[in-house]
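Subject: sequence -> C-alpha cells, single chain

Hey, anyone have a minute? Need the predicted structure for the following. Not urgent.
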Amino acid sequence: MLLEGLSMQKNTDKKYFVVFRSIHDTLSAERLLKKQSVSMELSPLPMEISKACGLCILIPHENACSAFETIRSGIDAERFEIYSYDGSVYTVEK
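Reply:
Had a minute. Here:
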C-alpha cells in the first residue's frame, strides 16, 4: 500500500497528483484538505496522465501521508487515482 512506503522514502522531489472522477470530487477533496490545513494546490491535469481538460490536486511528498488519509476519510477510494511524479515519469500508485 502506498501509505506504508511513504515514510521510508527520502525523495522530497517526488510529487503526487490525485486525479478524481469529477470536478465535484476534486473540489470536495480541496475543502477537506484545507479544513485540515494540509498543504496542496489545485493543478491542471498533466497531459501525460490524461488528454482531458481538468483539475487535479498536487501534493508535495512531505504532506502525502496526511493528505491521502484526509482524502480517503471523505471520498470513496474508487473515485480517484494517485500518480507519483519523480521529475521524469508518472506512475500510478493505486
